[in-house]
Design goal:
The protein has 49 residues and is an all-alpha fold. The chain has a domain of 31 residues.
Length: 49
């Protein structure tokens, strides 16, 4: 797999930051993170890097 060495740590750090926010901001943060992860998966499905 083509992962950066600390990419998982970065994701967990982002989740920690999102979880520390008020509920309304948390929902928006998780929605944005979802969209980014979905786009990354879709690039992988189409042979993108």
């Amino acid at each position: 797999m083509n992962r950066e060495p600390h990419s998982e740590d970065g994701l967990l750090g982002r989740i920690d930051v999102i979880e520390a926010q008020p509920l309304e901001q948390r929902a928006s943060g998780f929605e944005q993170l979802h969209d980014e992860l979905l786009a990354e998966l879709q690039r992988g499905d189409h042979g993108g890097s």
